[in-house]
Amino acid sequence: MFDLAISCRNICTPEGMREGTVLVSNGVIVDIVPALTGQVSQREIDIGENVLMPGIIDPHVHINEPGRTDWEGFNTATLSAAAGGITTMVEMPLNASPVTTTADALDKKLAATEGKLHVNCGFWGGIVPGNGPEIEKLINKGVPGFKAFLTHSGIDEFPNVTEQDLHQAMPVIARRQLPLLVHCELTTNVQPPPAADVQSYKNYLSSRPKQWEDDAIALMIRLCEQYQCRVHIVHLSSASSIEQIKQARQKGLPITVETAQHYLYFNAEEIPDAQTAYKCAPPIREKENNEQLWQALQEGIIDFVATDHSPAPPALKEISSGNLIKAWGGIASLQLALPVLWTAARKRKIPVAEIAKWLCEKPAILPGLQKSKGRIAKGFNADFVVWDPDKSFKVTAEALHHKHKITPYIKQDLYGVVEQTWLAGQLIFEQGRFPVLNKGKIITS
User: Fold this and answer.
1) Phi and psi (nearest 5°) for 6?
2) Which residues form the Amidohydrolase-related domain (predicted)?
3) Fewest C-beta in 10 Å: which of 38, 251, 292, 422?
């Protein structure tokens, strides 16, 4: 007798969409069969024409606890994730306080999760100047990799690294075969024009030119080749770097790339002035640039899509002043990861199976979860999202579970309604309700 049987006409498997029934025992997928024959499970449901997809994996999320729980926190972040079909996240080493650059800081972060994890969560370590002795300690505590900035991170506790810092850290990370995630902007090489009008989005965009990204990515390609260290470029926004990334991959270098939903959904030409909810770094660029990101994603040069959920209170976002230069750079979108990407992909007639690759299968690889998560297949965790690709909704602040409802997606009409989320065979979200809470686990490498 199985614990659970989910029948569906649109099961998203690695081999493509198929009809059948997924059988689950002890939180693991046991089999996928064409049809049920008799009572074989304690719980049997039929989700009809809805899509059964692997639970979404988002390896780029800022939760900010401990220390800045007023920005977000584990409770609200993981509720938002569950409501959006995300079953596993990997949280960045900032903007918590203390930042996760020491083993002691990681212990504090793990303690802060107690009773607040509604989905699974892992934790990246951080690389900053001078924390070389902590790298092995963090690895031994289970971090799946490390994050570094090549420009100011936004908070002084997490300073950017120099090339010399990377020469010291990358051999250690490479020896342990873990990835180094890098925010690629080199702000010293190009001086942007002065921003006379602080409410002008055009001025903000010109203040962070593509060349900052392109130069930083060139540096990381060179260091990746020198040390054969896995390098992952986070939130790519400059299409000018696609060619050098492609060439590096053709040389066999271990480089992977993500972009974010907002670079694929919005275009700079459509962003109003003084609307700080749109501010992120690197910035959302022009339509022509972003169409090239779409092409690179479809060609596999960009591996996957992650939210870079980075919320902040209204005062930090300069909501009242509209000051795009001073405002915190970060977009809150965790709960909307699936519908935002699907809405934009649907216009391009991209099939659902591609969405599963970009949100589930490919992101699982970065933190080393590809043998247990990201696929609907025998032996994989029974983490699922049930969603209706043909159903639309208007984004409202009231429906969001993020601590702060500041997001550029408010009032957007999106396709792809999440009906259910399952974690290890347990229903954790259904049509606006959370049947069970605190079922998330800490993920370690």
Assistant:
1) -115, 115
2) 51-427
3) 38
Sequence-ordered list of residues with C-beta below 8 angstroms from that of 139, at least 6 positions apart, any chain: 125, 176, 178, 445
Q: What is the 3-state secondary structure (H, E, C) of 79-111?
A: HHHHHCCEEEEEECCCCCCCCCCCHHHHHHHHH
Whole-number Å distance between alpha carbons of 343 and 354: 13
CATH code where residue 171 lies? 3.20.20.140
In a domain, 3, yes or no: no
3-class SS of residue 280: coil
Domain assignment present for 123: yes
Buried (b) or exposed (e) across 14-36, using 16+ Cβ within 10 A? eeebeebbbbbbebbbbebeeeb
* Cα 420 to Cα 430: distance, rounded to the nearest angstrom: 4
Q: With the C-alpha atoms ordered 72, 74, 77, 83, is the resulting torsion angle positive or negative? A: negative
Residue 175 amino acid letter: R
Interatomic CA distance for residues 292 and 264, integer angstroms: 10
Say which amino acid occupies 445.
Answer: S
168 domain-assigned: yes
- Whole-angstrom CA distances from 378 to 16, 29, 115, 374, 393 are 15, 5, 30, 12, 34
Asked if residue 217 lies in contact with residue 233, where contact means CB atoms within 8 angstroms, the answer is yes
pTM for the structure as a whole? 0.97
* Per-residue b or e along 273-295, where b marks 16 or more CB atoms closer than 10 Å to that residue's CB: ebebbbbbbbbbbeeebbebbbe
d(CA 183, CA 161): 10
* Element housing 298 (H / E): helix 287-299
Domain total in the chain: 1
Instruction: Classify residue 324: in a domain, yes or no.
Output: yes
Nearest to 230 by CA among 211, 205, 252: 252
Cβ atoms within 10 Å of 159's Cβ, excluding its own = 16
The ranges of the chain with pLDDT < 50 are none
Angle between helices 163-175 and 210-227 (to 10 degrees): 50
Residue 385: name the closest of 344, 341, 350 by CA: 341
Residue 231 belongs to what domain range? 88-329+361-365
The span from the CA of 385 to the CA of 53, in Å, is 5
